[in-house]
UniProtKB/TrEMBL annotation:
<dbReference type="Pfam" id="PF13204">
    <property type="entry name" value="Apiosidase"/>
</dbReference>
<protein>
    <submittedName>
        <fullName>DUF4038 domain-containing protein</fullName>
    </submittedName>
</protein>
<feature type="transmembrane region" description="Helical">
    <location>
        <begin position="21"/>
        <end position="44"/>
    </location>
</feature>
<dbReference type="InterPro" id="IPR025277">
    <property type="entry name" value="Apiosidase-like_cat_dom"/>
</dbReference>
<keyword id="KW-1133">Transmembrane helix</keyword>
<keyword id="KW-0812">Transmembrane</keyword>
<keyword id="KW-0472">Membrane</keyword>
<dbReference type="InterPro" id="IPR017853">
    <property type="entry name" value="GH"/>
</dbReference>
<feature type="domain" description="Apiosidase-like catalytic">
    <location>
        <begin position="58"/>
        <end position="261"/>
    </location>
</feature>
Amino acid sequence: MPEKNFISGYGKPMKYSAYTFNFLLCQSVINCLIGWLIILPAFAQKADTFTLPLKISASKRHLVDQKNKPFLYQADTGWMLFLNLTKQEAITYLADRKSKGFNVIQTMLTGFDDFKNREGHSPFLGNKDFAQPNEAYFTHVDWVIRQADSLGLILSIAPLWSGCCKEGWAGEGKPIEKNGIKKTHELGRYIGKRYASFNNLFWILGGDNDPHADKEAIRQLALGIKQTAPHQLITYHASSSHSSTDVWENESWLDVVMVYT
């Protein structure tokens, strides 16, 4: 497979990558305690088995599986997994990461604004209308999620990557603003309902940015997912050096607080 299709960054050919984040783990922002998780490549580590979905430990300091077994979040950033890879390439990529000890893949559901997948399908029909999800696009996403699930891999998915540099879905004149609060909420419900049966999913709201004028729409996206898939954890990826709770306070949907360092 061409190495350019092992997409771990913003379209750049990176064969291996890893992110380091600090996490504050909590069931509610009010009573959370500080915990640390380091996301590192674990090339030689033996794969472990967990009973999904993940949940927050009773101490609110770390992630555990359904049997309360501690879970170390070891993620590769395959941001363009749903977009830049064919089915066969996706199988090869996921199997490769599994063999190297990764247990999570961080990826974008819809890529950047104006992106299409390898089959030429955009996430939405019309003028990026959130009320018109493209079934052909999401059918491919369904298939990739099932492949990851069969390997015991968790997918941490950013539904609408905000973007740091006007490349994402958030910001002035961008699709989140144009679609508005109601459509963005309904998109969250659509995503949650479509993927509620999967236990290997974890959601990342935002993406390299703090919420601004579209903050309420992003909140409604999160609430829509939580209403229809309450067992799936949600975090927020703020701008560099900010934590989720720097930009969100006392949010019922915020399960895991991420610090982008």
